[in-house]
Write a structure and sequence with these properties.
This protein has 7 helices and no strands. By secondary structure, it is mainly alpha-helical.
Length: about 110
């Protein structure tokens, strides 16, 4: 969030923080949620780049189209194992998966 917007909201009486702070998550829990979201977004992008439907991918991993939709949407019931399996089945390389998980601008455990 931009500093000016944050200041405006705080001045108006709003308390501004992260989703992790709001939910009372530890840094490790925040990192896990972030990893699942990133992998889900990467899964959708990879699947679409390889011109696969959710049904096509589901057949490759022995699952259902609705499960693939949950994987891409960041459903909390989806495991990291299933996300990685889906990415590999969609055509992602191990390097691409590792790069997707590499910390971005802020350190996850700072």
């Amino acid at each position: 969030m931009e500093k000016s917007k944050r200041k405006r909201l705080e001045k108006a009486g709003w308390r501004v923080g992260t989703a992790g702070e709001f939910l009372g998550l530890s840094k490790a829990e925040e990192a896990l949620v972030d990893m699942k979201l990133v992998l889900g977004m990467r899964l959708r992008k990879t699947r679409e780049q390889h011109q696969m439907t959710q049904t096509d991918l589901a057949k490759r991993i022995g699952s259902s189209q609705s499960r693939v939709a949950k994987m891409e949407a960041g459903d909390p019931g989806v495991s990291l194992d299933l996300l990685v399996q889906g990415l590999l089945a969609a055509g992602a390389t191990q390097r691409e998966i590792a790069l997707a998980l590499a910390p971005r601008k802020k350190a996850l455990f700072a």
